[in-house]
Amino acid sequence: MTDHPRKVTRALLSVSDKSGLIEFARALSAHGIDLVSTGGTAKAIAAAGLKVSDVSDLTGFPEMMDGRVKTLHPKVHGGLLAIRDNAEHAKAMKDHGISQIDLLVVNLYPFEETVAKNASYEDCIENIDIGGPAMIRAASKNHDDVTVVVEPSDYQSVLDELATNKGATTLTLRRRLTAKAYARTAAYDAAISNWFADQLKIDAPDFRAVGGKLVEALRYGENPHQTAAFYRTPELRPGVSSARQVQGKQLSYNNINDTDAAYECIAEFDPKRTAACVIVKHANPCGVAEGSNLIDAYRKALACDSTSAFGGIIAMNRTLDAETAQTITEILTEVIIAPDATEEAIAIIAKRRNIRLLLAGSLPDPRAPGLTYKTVAGGLLVQSRDNAVVDDMILKPVTKRQPTEAELRDLKFAFRVAKHVKSNTIIYAKDLATVGIGAGQMSRVDSARIAARKAQDAAAELKLAEPMTKGSVVASDAFFPFADGLLVAIEAGATAVIQPGGSIRDDEVIKAADDAGIAMVFTGVRHFKH
Question: Is 141 a catalytic site residue?
Fold first, then answer.
């Protein structure tokens, strides 16, 4: 059975990314393939000493309107869309002087890159490609006869087939390239439509498209029986998608998810103000701390729950130094992510080949706008990113006793962490470090109990006289619906509370705080995270 080979006699090349172009064009020419091109692509090919015809020679029309109109012509689209074995199509080509185009090589105007540079509205508009997507879709529809290439990375695959099949490509390759081509134009249009929605401040456009570029296929998903892949979207937010992996084996699906959670949390801590460390396990922080330096922050974070930290993800907000790197390697760690690392630190981590070290270059902005996505059966939930920061909130004292300066400092720290812990969330904190974390429980009172019990376990391991929740503060991501959760926190030793407020039983909760002589502040902002 034949793989429907189609000989390539003419190629149309029109690319913005010219990497590998000349070598590819030279190889095509060596196969006796006629080259047709446009604008800067044609100039580059001609400058390399290769014979190339301008698309205006093919169409009989010059490029016009600043290059906006050059390939939108029947002699281009007819050459791409004509079914070679269809007699009527063949007659139409002959009658109208249309020459077949067997290979289309197009990569699109750099719209995503232009937007990422914060270019002007006008520049972004001019970088919306029209002729490119139109040609790609035409060639892709006619993939029985036409080969379409949208990335330089596929040049070699085409050349290999031409060499193997005496100047022809197979249907197998053409179909694979067609699938990529349609996905590319879909992602491109998604970037444009989302940009327009952002420009027009439309929170809920009638259609929402999402597109991304494959970073890598993953070994499996959350579980070994699930397939998975990692895609990069046009949003240039520093983190796991943009980080350079210095060493270690391939990141898993869970590694990527957990590392993202860790780095988003560490971004809440301005490195100019303080050193900070976040340790994450199963997408939840199990220890967070500020310190005078990274090693101090790491040790304080680890003390919160060293059992859960085993095999965890560690995020730093400053350049990883040798002393901290050495200390981290004393326990099993899956991933370390930081803006940068010293050469000494990199060398130390290199001795632990299984540790993945990621350097992200910078921290994401916790205040930056953006969208998050969650799939449900038959649908997609889209919301704006939770970019509320406690430093920007007006904290309202609601109890008779006001928090002390030290308590207020720890309250802000605890609420900063609560934003990144799965709901229901309770955070005990003391001296700018978490000392008990209760995450993801169906009942807030259960989260308070679990966090207190974690603190008791940590005290036993550290051989402390009492849990570190004694004299701590407590943060709740949402209001206390009853006083019971607060009473658990008071029993654990908390002296001050931060919570959004807004319950119909706020008065009951405030009275419980007053009766215990503790301070409470309301933020007016909830931090649910599901």
Answer: yes
